[in-house]
Amino acid sequence: MAELAILGGKPAVTIKDPERWRPPIEEEKKAVCELIEERFLSGSGTGLPKQFEEEFREYVGCKYCLTVDHGSTALASAFYAVKVGPGDEIITPTLGYLGTYTGALHLGARPVFCDIDPETLLIDPEDVERRITKRTRAIVPIHLWGNVCDMDALMDIGRRYGIPIIEDAAHAHGAEWDGVKVGNIGDLTCFSLQGCLPWGKPVCGGEGGIVTTNVREFYERMLAYCHLHRAGITDELTLPEYRGLDSEVLGLKWRAHPLALAIARVSFKSLDYRNRRRDEFRRKLFEALEGIPGVKPVKTYPKAKPGGFYGGLKLIYQPEELEGLPIDRYVEALKAEGVPISRYGRQLEHLRTIFRRGFDLWGHGRGPLGGEFFGLPPFEGYKEGDFPVAERMVGRILSIPAYIDPEDGFLEQVIKAFEKVAANYKQLL
Ligand SMILES: Cc1ncc(COP(=O)(O)O)c(C=O)c1O
């Protein structure tokens, strides 16, 4: 085989900027300009924001869909919907994201972390079940990078214990489980609209979020919580507790900016195309890598159809197949070959300072990460070793962008580069 590029040989990948798909910038500008000309720069429950909610609702196949200003506020309003409050706990994986659970924390609940499945890197349902207490008010799986969690196992746990499942689908627009779209499976599903095409959230308009549900009460609670002055809100509040509230409801205004939704609506039009193409790239790459020592692609559950693919395609480094070659050396060698590969750089959630040593959230010794609070046991703090699987896997995660329309021959060159490094790894030891 040819000499490794890191040792002076020729790189295997010669195509430098492989993505040919271009974001629909002209269409985005047109959509924004139309709203500027209409003077529709604020409002919800009507016009384009309502139209977008209706289109997304239909796509997912659920009964209710609300847009908000961020994915994290989508999650926060979902926590309010299921009545998360002081003294409660919610369970979420430590390989995750702060914005997934901070809405619950600020409502006074304590995040309880759980471990992950080593092959999918997603929430481990068995570990979830072990961590349930009488205080558990929600289970929050994350469809990380568009890979869908084991929804059969999670829904079964949720039903057996009477605990709502709130899915964080910030990365997974258009993904499916057993033929059903994510957004129409759990009790509530939250999407982010952050970033811009092609590398932002799969549907995106700068900032924004969406919540979907089939439960009327959850929908009305979210309306009441954070949709101040939404058009038609008082007519939509039909349940006895919320009927008769005025249009300022409970005072929070978390609605999305119409301009952001206009851009998101443009991106939504190409979602299925992008998902199909990225999935083709994923399948071909993963199939080829299965036979090459040094990495394994993340697994997908048999009923899952991944979608969205935000954050790239994940591979798991297997140093034992390369005589313990350090991961950084392996990555450097692939980069020198021209492979757009990187290491996953985030820390695990339980190792954040606030969870290692606690934090006096509201001052004066009050808060869910302190001593006893509304029935919560004293906070012990997390430490290294608490989540053996996530801790073992996090340092081995590698990422490759999920391309939509890569230049012809690019994928083949990338595969060649992996083969070349695997065949010559001894020179790197
Ligand atoms: C897994 C996950 N959940 C939630 C969020 C929050 O979304 P937003 O940034 O729109 O608040 C993000 C954002 O990146 C995320 O990656």
Molecular structure report:
- The chain is of the alpha+beta class.
- Helices cover 34% and strands 12% of the residues.
- The protein has helices at residues 25-38, 47-60, 71-81, 98-106, 125-130, 151-161, 216-226, 233-236, 258-269, 271-289, 327-336, 353-357, 388-393, 410-423; strands spanning 64-68, 89-93, 110-114, 136-139, 166-168, 176-177, 180-181, 188-192, 209-213, 295-297, 304-305, 313-317, 342-343, 397-400.
- The strands form 4 sheets. It has a 4-stranded mixed beta sheet with strand order 1-9-8-5, with helices on both faces.
- Strand 2, helix 4 (98-106) and strand 3 (110-114) form a beta-alpha-beta unit.
- Helix 3 packs across helix 4.
- The protein is globular and about 75 Å long.
- The mean pLDDT is 98.
Shape: globular
- How confident is the prediction overall: mean pLDDT? 98
Widest sheet: strand order? Answer: 1-9-8-5
- Fraction of residues in H or I helices: 25-40%
The percentage of residues in β strands lies in: 5-15%
Entry keywords:
429 residues, alpha+beta, single chain, four-stranded antiparallel beta sheet, globular, 14 strands, four-stranded mixed beta sheet, binds pyridoxal-5'-phosphate, 34% helix
Secondary structure elements and their pairing?
Elements: H1 25-38, H2 47-60, E1 64-68, H3 71-81, E2 89-93, H4 98-106, E3 110-114, H5 125-130, E4 136-139, H6 151-161, E5 166-168, E6 176-177, E7 180-181, E8 188-192, E9 209-213, H7 216-226, H8 233-236, H9 258-269, H10 271-289, E10 295-297, E11 304-305, E12 313-317, H11 327-336, E13 342-343, H12 353-357, H13 388-393, E14 397-400, H14 410-423
Parallel strand pairs: 2-3, 2-4, 5-8
Antiparallel strand pairs: 1-9, 6-7, 6-11, 8-9, 10-12, 12-14, 13-14
Helix pairs in contact: 1-9, 2-9, 3-4, 3-7, 10-14
This protein binds pyridoxal-5'-phosphate.
Pyridoxal-5'-phosphate (PLP) binds next to helix 3 and helix 4.
